[in-house]
Design brief:
The complex is a heterodimer of chains A (263) and B (250). Chain A is α/β, with parallel strands linked by helices and 263 residues long. Chain A has two domains: 183 residues, Rossmann fold (3-Layer(aba) Sandwich), CATH 3.40.50.300; 74 residues, no CATH class. Chain B is mainly alpha-helical and 250 residues long. Chain B contains ten helices and no strands. The two termini of chain B are 20 Å apart. Classes of the chains: A alpha/beta (263), B mainly alpha (250). Bound molecules: adenosine-5'-diphosphate (ADP) and magnesium ion (MG).
């Protein structure tokens, strides 16, 4: 299998000039994401999950080490890496269809051409009838679907999702997880899925990287032994339970370490 | 409160004011305080002669043209300053200094520079408006959500496209606030300027009435001013809210 993304010994240090302080957000992080694979980053807040995503997205550069997309160094953002943010960051002055068509518009595609394409994606994310609505008029789950459609229209190599459902209520979150699994079956792209929810990580991912803090790093890699297509019913299967027990064990050990250090 | 209730209160407030005004006319002689009715008669009279409409048009022309110029230049500078920290650092000390020079104090200087004609007044209004628009736009452009810019960049937008398709729309509410503040300031400045150096305009009417003690005319001018300011302010509010509903203009 070919690797879509690779991080090689990535270290990221943030310097706070005013307080003359350094934060080691990431220390020696290495991993790859294969074609059509979903990798979940699971860890407490502050462990560097968003920093990893920002590096792969090309928003920031690593202090040390290398980040590659299909073997090429990542130096800036690109449409082949679709980013879905926790706070959606839709363009609130544009309608749903214009938000979704944004990538086509900046490429100079005419309105006559991009509208049918946008409508196709409106339909694909189940928002038919809301083409002319504005983001402020939608529910949280609908907004996240718009922001996913907005990147899907670019036909990205990889989807980078930063806690996309964290702000949603439990019921909506479950619906969105099922919806995203179905969408994945249609598109079969690579995915980096960030979450701090153990169930969500197991349900979505093929591999889970459990992360620790101070410094932010990967503690352990875990393979999810669930078949595709995934379904909600698997949440109560023995294989799921076993994986979850393993995850919680690792997380507990890491928290105990921090606890003993007085963190 | 219901819309009807608000309207009733507004009407009552105006009524109380008029009655109080009328009441005071029994205490002071007409040369000090003409009654609402005489003021209105005078207003009708100088409307017929065309004198009042002409002065209103002149004031409006000066305010709106200076303000529009200030809006265009101020929005542009504000966005540039908001996005480029080094330009901001360069311009901010100068801006901070001139902010405390009241526009009225520059009337005579601008007459020396630009002559007694319309140019000097328009430049003065431009000066008044541009600072307010710059300061507000700059604050807006500097606070554009980084995430929105990143989203656009990763969707394939170039630097220029990010500027026009994200930074400017995100800055719109701040620009609108700046434009509204600038307009009310421009209005006050033009009246003062016309009192000092003009042969037309509502400000000139007050000055002219004052030296010849034509108190009735002065009161017509007062009422005209407050009505003009009120209408201008309301229409700009209503217009900007209608034009930019989805830009989160408050
Ligand atoms: N721009 C930045 N400047 C300074 N410190 C930062 C910056 N971004 C992140 N950090 C720090 O790096 C660490 C990891 O942050 P982040 O990647 O956002 O964690 P997570 O997404 O897992 O919650 C945190 O301690 C955070 O405070
Ligand atoms: Mg985060």
């Amino acid at each position: 299998m070919t690797e879509k993304v690779r991080l090689e010994r990535v270290t990221k240090i943030f310097e706070d000039a005013r307080q003359a302080r350094e934060t080691v957000a990431l220390k020696d992080v290495s991993f790859g994401i294969e074609d059509r694979e979903t990798v979940a980053l699971l860890g407490p807040s502050g462990c560097g999950k968003t920093t990893i995503l920002n590096i792969i997205a090309g928003f920031i550069l690593p202090t040390e080490g290398e980040a590659l997309i299909e073997g090429r160094p990542i130096t800036k953002p690109g449409p082949e890496r679709g980013v879905v943010f926790q706070e959606h960051f839709l363009f609130h002055w544009l309608t749903v269809e214009d938000n979704i068509a944004f990538a086509l518009k900046v490429r100079g595609v005419s309105r006559r051409e991009f509208l049918p394409r946008a409508h196709e994606f409106v339909k694909r994310v189940g928002l038919t009838g809301f083409e002319r609505h504005y983001p402020d008029e939608l529910s949280g789950g609908m907004r996240q679907r718009v922001s996913i459609a907005r990147v899907l229209i670019n036909n990205p190599e990889i989807l980078l999702m930063d806690e996309p459902f964290a702000a949603l209520d439990a019921q909506t979150r479950l619906l969105m997880q099922e919806w995203l699994l179905k969408l994945w079956e249609e598109h079969q792209m690579s995915m980096l899925f960030i979450t701090h929810d153990v169930d969500e990580a197991i349900l979505m991912a093929d591999r889970i990287f459990i992360m620790g803090v101070q410094p932010g790093r990967i503690i352990q890699e875990l393979k999810v032994p669930l078949p595709r297509p995934r379904a909600r019913t698997m949440l109560t299967s023995p294989a799921f339970m076993e994986t979850k027990a393993g995850c919680l064990d690792l997380i507990a050990k890491e928290s105990a370490k921090i606890f003993e250090q007085g963190g | 409160m219901r819309i009807g209730g608000v309207f009733a209160i507004y009407t009552l407030s105006v009524a109380i004011f008029l009655v109080a005004w009328w009441g005071f006319t029994f205490v002071f002689p007409p040369i000090f305080l003409p009654s609402p009715l005489t003021t209105m008669r005078k207003a009708v009279e100088i409307t017929r002669t065309g004198e009042l409409p002409w002065n209103i048009v002149m004031s409006l022309f000066r305010v709106l043209s200076g303000w529009a110029l200030g809006a265009v230049v101020g929005s542009f500078l504000g966005v540039v300053m908001g996005r480029l920290p080094w330009v901001r650092a360069l311009a901010l000390p100068v801006l901070e200094y001139f902010r405390f020079v009241p526009p009225v104090t520059l009337v005579t200087l601008f007459i020396i520079w630009f002559g007694f004609g319309e140019e000097s007044k328009i430049v003065l209004i431009f000066y008044t408006a541009v600072f307010i628009v710059v300061v507000n736009t700059m604050a807006g452009a500097a606070s554009v959500r980084e995430g929105a810019i990143r989203a656009a960049r990763s969707l394939g937008a170039t630097g220029t496209q990010v500027l026009f398709r994200v930074v400017v729309p995100e800055t719109v509410p701040y620009m609108v606030t700046g434009l509204q503040l600038a307009l009310s300031n421009a209005f006050m400045t033009i009246v003062a300027a016309e009192m000092l150096a003009a042969k037309s305009g509502v400000g000139f009417m007050i000055w002219d009435a004052q030296i010849y003690t034509k108190t009735e005319r002065m009161f017509v001018a007062f009422v005209t001013l407050s009505l003009m300011g009120f209408c201008l302010d309301r229409s700009v509010h209503a217009l900007s809210r209608r034009m930019f509903v989805h830009y989160r203009v408050v």
